[in-house]
Design goal:
The structure is a homodimer of 113-residue chains. The first copy, chain A, is α+β, with helices and mostly antiparallel strands and 113 residues long. The first copy, chain A, has one domain: Winged helix-like DNA-binding domain superfamily/Winged helix DNA-binding domain (Arc Repressor Mutant, subunit A), CATH 1.10.10.10. In chain A, 63% of the residues lie in helices and 12% in strands. Chain A is built from six helices and three strands. In chain A, strands 1-3-2 form a three-stranded antiparallel β-sheet. In chain A, a hairpin with a 5-residue loop joins β2 and β3. Chain A starts with 5 loop residues before the first helix and ends with a helix. The interface between A and B is large, with 49 and 49 residues.
Chain lengths: 113, 113
């Protein structure tokens, strides 16, 4: 098919977004930084139940390379490394809010069963 | 930690949602049905660039088992099988819209580079 259907055209932005946010943890990590502001690695790790350091480290690097998260090394003793959402990352707030609101309803539904 | 931080409490609904919608394709499939209404398997497949029949079949079954998608077999000749979002699946519309809106901006940003 050379001619894309209307549905396909409308899908492309969603596919791009999911290409970027694919995986179990990326959106969870971003929501953590959205809620917590500037955070150290262990603060993020301790906030997210069951995430491993390896996955968190890999996903933070990925999000940094896509300018969604910024990483700042502070010359303290010992050195501290802080993460936060970039201005661009913060534009995802409507996604975090929509997922949170739906998740609250979904959780009620699961618990009711 | 027995005492959950405020951030962790707020994260739990997002984690539940991502547990459910995890993976590259589920949200894309649901958005397709959100845009297209009632659709046959091949209509869905043809609307989504690069998805394989195997993945589509597996994810549709998963979404059916979670009452997000309904599957109807029609006694036509040959038999037709139709999929659509359930009423519950439709409650995810704010998630689809937020992802679409962000994706449109994100696509512009990528193309500009």
């Amino acid at each position: 098919m050379n001619q894309k259907s209307e549905i396909t055209k409308k899908l492309l932005p969603v596919m791009d977004t999911m290409e970027l946010l694919n995986g179990r943890w990326k959106i969870v990590i971003m929501t953590t930084l959205y809620l917590g502001g500037t955070m150290r690695f262990n603060e993020i790790k301790n906030s997210i139940p069951r995430i491993t350091g390896r996955v968190l480290s890999k996903d933070l690097k990925f999000l940094e390379s896509h300018q969604i998260v910024s990483r700042t090394v502070k010359d303290t003793s010992p050195i501290t490394v802080e993460y936060e959402l970039t201005e661009y990352g913060k534009t995802l707030d409507s996604v975090f809010r929509a997922l949170t609101e739906w998740g609250i309803q979904h959780r009620k539904r699961i618990i009711r069963k």
